[in-house]
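Record type: monomer structure entry
Structure origin: computed from sequence
Chain ID: A
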Amino acid sequence: MIEFSPYWNVPPSIAKGETCRGCGATWAISNRQGFEFVGSDGRVIEGFSEADLDAVQRGQLRIRQRPGASNALGEEKHLMLTPHKQSRRVFLGQAVRLVVAGTVLPAAKPVLAALPNARSLEFVHLHTGEHLSVVFAIGDHYRPDALNALNHFLRDHYSGEVGSIDPQLFDLLFQTRQELDCSQPVEVYSGYRCATTNTQLRNNRGGGVARQSLHMEGKAIDIRLPGVPLADLRDAAISLGVGGVGFYPRNHFVHLDTGRVRYW
């Protein structure tokens, strides 16, 4: 069954854990995104108050998004009847895409990315070949599950060791892409680096690897952006006045970190 021009009822787990926390009034009054508060009787709440956010946290109000171009479900919603014995994993997999006559219909566009103040990044790792697209923060709130996914994605690709990446590094990447008005995925050359790997690279490459590299602290990343000249990427990062920026044209990457401000 297909429902056209659907409302999107924001799941309580998102409304409580992501939507209200850190977003404040910006979330509630974002008319251009079409969000609204709804009471248990289906009545739309006019206006906005901090008490409404508290009511969402208590489950007394819910949040939904009106039909329209900004709606996270798109122009149509596929409703599926689920057999009782069907596993949740299988059902969720079917809910993401509907297969009809061999054609896979695209899933609804990412719902979190439609939220006000959402910050997202898309990556391609040049060594592992892995791809990752993630909303890592909403307002002042960093999403723990997203940070865990990013930590794994940016693991030491030599040893497989997973480090803890400084969330501010993701903000720096986000701001750099914005400065360049670039929607291309970030191509990652190097992320986290364990001490053993750092020593091995230092011995093999000489002065090209710092003894106390910020890669070991999860505060540095080496990247490039498809279609963006390295010099432009460097200049955009420098213009932000945040952390260190290293220019490595021979190796085809720019180093960014959240350490003290410096350039080389």
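Annotation 1: The mean pLDDT is 78.
Annotation 2: The chain has eight helices and 15 strands.
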